[in-house]
UniProtKB/TrEMBL annotation:
InterPro entries on file: Homeodomain-like_sf, HTH-like, HTH_AraC, Tscrpt_reg_AraC-type_HTH
Organism per entry: Mucilaginibacter pankratovii
Domain of life: Bacteria
Name by which UniProt lists this protein: AraC family transcriptional regulator
PANTHER family: ARAC-FAMILY TRANSCRIPTIONAL REGULATOR, TRANSCRIPTIONAL REGULATORY PROTEIN
Keywords per UniProt: DNA-binding, Transcription, Transcription regulation
Amino acid sequence: MKDIPVHKIQDRANSGLDIRHFVPGAHSKDVEKLGVHRDDHYIFFVLREGSASLMVDFHEMHFAESSLFYLLPGQVHHPTRYNLGDGWFIAVDTPLIAPDYRMVFEGHLQLQQPFPLSPQQLEEFHTVLSLLENKYQSNEEDPFYLPVIHSLLQSFLGIAASCFCTANSNRQQLSRPAQLAQQFKKILTENMRTIKSPSAYAAQLNVSESYLNEALKKTTGMTVSYWITQEVVLEAKRLLYYSEMNTKEIAHTLGYEDPTYFSRIFKRTANLTPLEFRRHYRK
C-alpha cells in the first residue's frame, strides 16, 4: 500500500448520507473487508447491544452496548474486534453538519471518547434513526426526499452534539479560551501540512500569538507549537505505519524540504527515528 486508502462518501451515497441498521452477524463480512483506511466524511456509531473495538490513530477504542461514538474525517482506523449485536452506522458528508455541531465534534485536541447513553437517550436515537432509515430507503423520486432525510439527519446530529457538549469539560467550550482552542484545532487539522508557524495560526484566528498560547495553555496545558508538532508527527506515524512511503517522501508530503530536519523533529517527539518507529510498530 503506497498510501493510506481514503473512502469517499460520493462512492457510498448521492445524498451525502448513508445509514445502516445492523443486527447480529449481518455485516461481519463487510467489516472484515474494510481494512486500514481514512474517510473523507464523518462516521457515527450508535450501539444498542454488543461491543466493538477500533484502532484509531494508534489508540484502541472500546465501546459497548448503549454507547455513541464518532470518527472524524482523516482519522486512520480499522476494526480490531467486533461483536455487533444491534445498532446503527451513519456516514455523513461534512458540509451537512452545521458549524455549531462541528465545533463540538472537532474542537478537542485529545482523541474523542465513546459516550455512554442513558436508556432515554438510547431510545431517542433509536426513534430518530429508525425514521431516518425508513425515509432514506423510500422513493428517491419524492419531491421532498432530500429535505426530509436531511431534516431528520439534523435532529440526530443535534442530539449527538448535545451529548458530547454536555460531556466535555463541564461546558468549558463556552469560555473564550475553549472556543479559541476549538477553532485552532479545526484550522490545524486542515493546514498542518503547509503551515507550521504559531503566528500564522494566530493571524488566521485574529488574535496575537501570545494570547493563543495563553488560551491553549489554559485549556490543554500545552502551547501552540506543541500541538502543531503533535499533529504533524501523528500524520507522519500514520504514513510510516500504513503506507510504503520512505522518510524523504513523508517529509515532503508534510511540508518539509529537509528530510533530516523532519527526522530530528520526529525523534525529539516520538523518541524514535522514523525508521525505528516503522520497524518497531510493524513487528
